[in-house]
Amino acid sequence: MLVVVETLPQKSFYNPNLFALKVSAAVAGGLAGTLTVASLHEGLKRITPDAPRMDLLDMELIRKGLKTLHKEVPGEDELQRWAVGGELLCDTAYYSLAAAGGKKGVWLRGALLGLVAGVTAVILPKPLGLPQEPSNKTLATQLMTVGLYLMGGLVAAAVTQVVDAAQSNTAEVDEFY
Prior knowledge:
Layout: H1 16-47, H2 54-68, H3 76-96, H4 106-123, H5 133-136, H6 139-176
């Protein structure tokens, strides 16, 4: 007896590129959010004396941390490079969290991440023993601080969504061929 078994092409439920797509969309969004905050921050510094000076706050935080660890504090230029590098790395990772949990809620997560970052930048300097003026000089400074980080979160959400959609379209084309 001869049995002929015809196998149909099976579509795999496992897609090894799925995780990479989400990670790259998240990192792209996080980087976009970080660069938005940095760009707006630099622009505001040039046009208003009440602009937040998060760069000074970051440098003071590093200075204080190094002193606590009894380490040598570098000069201002080196300290500024450390602050910029730390901001780039940490803020990108932070804003990348807008992509956590998938497509639904990315805008809400981006907005909440931005608001939390902005509010904590206004509230935390005093309890941490840092100078308050960089983010609390005036009410306008406080509002700009929260606004900067909120904008970063919203841009992170938008870019995450756009990159994810673009990658999803590419993945569908790749599967077709």
